[in-house]
Amino acid sequence: MKVLEIGCGGGDLAFDIARIVAPSGRVRGTDIDQTKLDLATREAAELSLTNIEFQLGNITESAPAGNFDFVHTRFVLTHLTDPAQALKHIRAALRPGGIIVLEDIDFSGYFCYPDCAALWRYVHLYTETTRRRGVDPNIGPRLPSLLVEAGFENIQANIVQSSGLAREVKLISPLTMENIADAVIGEGLATAEEIERIVADLYAFADKPGTLGSTPRIFEAWATQPV
């Protein structure tokens, strides 16, 4: 299969796909960050993956050149102001009968036990910051309808969610809060001091034995290009 991985970042998932379609299949990974693509290219060489290439590309601006059997994108549409346009470009790059797979978040799907006020404040700040920037933090449930509107067929969907007592799962929240701090402050939604308190409380929750945490809900949707 000829596979396109959109928003490949450092290439971890693209590497797995390259192993699956080897030896005759090929993978192209695209991203808007050239630094990440350079890292992915070097790692692919170190892993002796010869059936993969990485290319700078913005799916909102143009359709990737090629005629692909399978297109996958994960955690990309939630960051786009016009996901429908991106799907038009994906469809243009997909051969008749080809498969598209989307994965994206529903940020409202967080849960925890016991209740953690810092978690809900973090969810609110992330949600409001992204909405003010014109993107959808809860795009997951929209994926099937977006595929319908784009003209795909045989649409199916599934939901997955990482959760548990493990510290690694619960660390996603404070790490993300740290990463979006400048954006939240820039939107005037919180002060640096409040964000420091939220982050400290989220780390404390992650470190406390017996606390149950989760990541956002993740929706998976897939469909085929009409023949």
Word description of this protein:
There is one protein chain. The chain is α/β, with parallel strands linked by helices and 227 residues long. The chain has one domain (58-224): Vaccinia Virus protein VP39 (Rossmann fold), CATH 3.40.50.150. The protein is built from 9 helices and 9 strands. The strands form 2 sheets. The chain has a 7-stranded mixed sheet. Strand 4 (68-74), helix 3 (83-93) and strand 5 form a beta-alpha-beta unit. Helix 4 crosses helix 9 (192-207) and helix 7 (172-179) packs antiparallel against helix 9 (192-207).
Measured distance between first and last alpha carbons: 17 Å
Give unreliable regions as ranges. none
Q: What string gives the helices and strands in order?
A: EHEHEEHEHHEEHHHHEE
Specify the overall morphology: globular
Return the CATH class. Alpha Beta
Q: How is the CATH topology named?
A: Rossmann fold
List its traits.
227 residues; alpha/beta; Rossmann fold; seven-stranded mixed sheet; two-stranded antiparallel ribbon
Gist?
It is built from nine helices and nine strands. It has 227 residues and is α/β, with parallel strands linked by helices.
Secondary structure: elements and pairs:
Layout: E1 2-6, H1 12-21, E2 26-31, H2 34-46, E3 52-56, E4 68-74, H3 83-93, E5 94-106, H4 117-132, H5 143-149, E6 153-160, E7 163-164, H6 167-170, H7 172-179, H8 181-186, H9 192-207, E8 213-214, E9 217-224
Parallel strand pairs: 1-2, 1-4, 2-3, 4-5
Antiparallel strand pairs: 5-9, 6-9, 7-8
